[in-house]
Design a protein that fits this description.
- The protein has 278 residues and is α/β, with parallel strands linked by helices.
- It has one domain: Rossmann fold (3-Layer(aba) Sandwich), CATH 3.40.50.
- Helices cover 32% and strands 20% of the residues.
- It is built from 9 helices and 11 strands.
- The protein starts with a helix and ends with a strand.
């Protein structure tokens, strides 16, 4: 039996959005009519990143930004891969008027929704659409491996990437790490999630047939050969030395996720969390 995830990857990118929209249409109509959806929560059919409760998962990450990363209300925040506002929504209640938020994403409909529903209420929250290729979300666009973030040097105190590097290939990740170093102020932090491939995850994932990385590409592994950006795992030691440190960043702390089969109660999140520092 072909897993549902595999069937989803068979669809062209545009059809994936349509399939989700149609699947959630009844509940979206009900929540809209009943008023059960708040103003900063998009219809489920429009959410194209992450799973679970949209607002609860964003609130949990905000706690981690504060407790693990040292985020304060006056910080200037960059959300790389801002999606449809999962991280931005809780930050609207935390960042002060002295703080600010910038987000960019490769999916135009997500940026448009955020502008209409978040920026309109919170003018210190800004979103940009960037036309980059990613075979999970788009079939054309520029290269993330050579993309320069549209911000000046040392512009941010805190950079967020939640479930972004998990959908990027090595040259793209290396470039983004260099750009993060460029736009961070000295002492600034980067909170990023990954799938880290190490001895423990290799051993544990053997017993997890529904979520593993069978395609070995040397220092990284793929979940799907046809849609390479579907999910990507990076060999931990190589990532640390040859990509993170090579970009001028320091790995301050790693928090391993429960994706390969670790006890959920012992982990902070499904994905692995890395706290990087300039």
């Amino acid at each position: 039996m072909i897993p549902l995830r595999k069937l989803y990857y068979f669809l062209p990118p545009a059809w994936r959005f349509l399939a989700r929209r149609l699947y959630y249409l009844p509940v979206d109509l009900y929540e809209g009519w009943s008023g059960r959806r708040d103003a900063l929560t998009p219809p489920r059919g429009l959410i194209y990143t992450g799973s679970g409760d949209f607002r609860a998962s964003g609130e949990k990450m905000l706690r981690y930004f504060i407790e693990l990363g040292g985020l304060v209300p006056e910080h200037r925040v960059l959300d790389v891969g801002s999606g449809i506002g999962r991280m931005a929504a809780p930050l609207t209640t935390y960042l002060s008027e002295a703080g600010s938020y910038e987000g960019f994403d490769v999916v135009e409909k997500g940026v448009r929704w955020c502008r209409e529903n978040i920026s309109r209420r919170f003018p210190n929250f800004r979103f940009q659409y960037i036309d980059l290729d990613n075979d999970l979300y788009k079939s054309q666009g520029g290269s993330a491996a050579s993309f320069r973030f549209p911000y000046p040097d040392a512009d941010f105190d805190f950079v967020i990437l939640t479930s972004v590097f998990t959908h990027m290939l090595p040259d793209e990740v290396a470039n983004y790490l260099r750009e993060i170093h460029r736009v961070l102020r000295p002492g600034g932090a980067c909170f990023a999630t990954f799938f880290l491939w190490n001895e423990a995850s290799a051993r544990l994932s053997k017993n997890n047939p529904h979520f593993n990385f069978p395609y070995d590409r040397g220092h990284y592994r793929l979940m799907d050969e046809q849609v390479q950006s579907a999910n990507v795992a990076y060999e931990e030691a190589y990532l640390k030395k040859m990509m993170i440190e090579a970009a001028g960043l320091a790995l301050e702390r790693a928090y391993y996720g429960y994706w390969p089969g670790r006890e959920k109660a012992d982990c902070k999140d499904f994905q692995d969390i890395l706290l990087l520092r300039k």
